Amino acid sequence: MVGLLLQTYRLVRAVVLLVRRPEGRALALLVVVQLVGGTVFYTLNEGWSWLDSLYVSVTTLATVGLGDLAPATDAGKLFTIVFIFTGVGLLATFISMLAQQLRPAPERDRG
Questions:
Q1: For residue 24, which of 2, 8, 18, 69 is within the disulfide window of CB 3.0 to 4.6 Å?
Q2: From the CA atom positions of the chain, what is the Rg in Å?
Q3: What pLDDT sits at residue 107?
């Protein structure tokens, strides 16, 4: 349990340090805008609840794609295609920058 709390602390600290940097803040904002945009679109277009819409947005961008909810409309399918192409790259870049932030300091300084 202590290990989990320690790792959670390290992750939260890394996110805070990352969003203090201008490029990290901009990237985090883009990821949030992407998730909010997807949530709003799925709620309005597909008629899903806000939580279901956020859930689909997160699982889509994380490339999990559980398939329990899928867009039924043509507009929803087209939106999802664009959502994937734009969002997966943003999220992957954010996670990559977060991973660099989590590396021990001597390795970060050498790179």
A1: 18
A2: 17
A3: 58
